[in-house]
Description:
Layout: H1 17-28, H2 39-47, H3 51-79, H4 86-113, H5 117-124, H6 126-129, H7 131-145, H8 156-190, H9 195-225, H10 232-257, H11 266-283, H12 304-312
Helix pairs in contact: 1-4, 1-9, 3-4, 3-7, 3-8, 3-10, 4-9, 7-8, 7-10, 8-9, 8-10, 8-11, 9-12, 10-11
Amino acid sequence: MLLEPGFNLTLRPMKYPAFFEMYKNAIKNTWTVDEVDFSTDVTDLKSKLTENESFLIQRLVAFFATGDSIVANNLVLNLYKHINSPEARLYLSRQLYEEALHVQFYLTLLDTYIPDEKERAKAFSAIENIPSIKKKGDFCFKWMDSIDDLDKLETKEDRRKFLLNLICFATCIEGLFFFAAFAYVYYLRSKGLLQGLASGTNWVFRDESAHMEFAFGVIETVRKEEPDLFDGRMKEMVKVMLAEAIECELDFASEFLDQGIAGINTKDMRTYLEFIADQRLSRLGIETVYGAKNPFDFMELQDTQELANFFERRVSAYQVGVTGEVAFDESF
Length: 332
């Protein structure tokens, strides 16, 4: 079984070929930070953003400074050692590379956006000195620490703990915290601002959507192999987890949205987060809670399966160096 203790190294015969296909698709969608052109962003930052939009960007890049590093640490410390499939571990190895690439992208972003060395140092230490970002970090660390002492998944309860960690990172961190950040980026892009940030975010968005699809694939496989693991108590814990993540994100959002930014406000952000949460619950086969609709006309959010289908329809330009824009109003 996929979460059976051990370290299977046999790739033939291949037991979980879907994970190997995910690995190959990820390789085909390679991009580099050097392809991102931030030249017009500098002009926008100096002369086009309002004061409140500038504060939004300051908070956003401060969160970006540590977000993907947290995901990478959980992948190495908690995921790789417990998913007993060489095909899946190939994908996780590729995901770790992509997380490092995202860290490099945000490092370059901060170096470009914040030329002052002292201000840049503050951004990199935001998880320690900005309460709303620390709150999101503590939420992440709580779920990392929840399985920190699990060397082997010996019991069903061990495997439930592991699944909750995986679900948290797929639905709440990559699937909600990051998607809220993407919404802010695409809001600014809709105003013709920060095109370099938007173009790089397109590629990060695509990577993160694939990471989520892999995690959901692991969860679905485990549910087929051990259907009694995903009981009613666990489903309720997922709902509570998502509700807590929404409140963490709203605490972060209120710092800049409550100052007044035309076209986006805290009420709509709550609706958007509830809309995302319902999508994540639906993807997990759990009844939805909020019944929310996407309030942002600048971002037509597609679920992860539809985005996965996009990989299959990419043109040859996407094979190695990805170019162009991701459209959110396509019928995939």
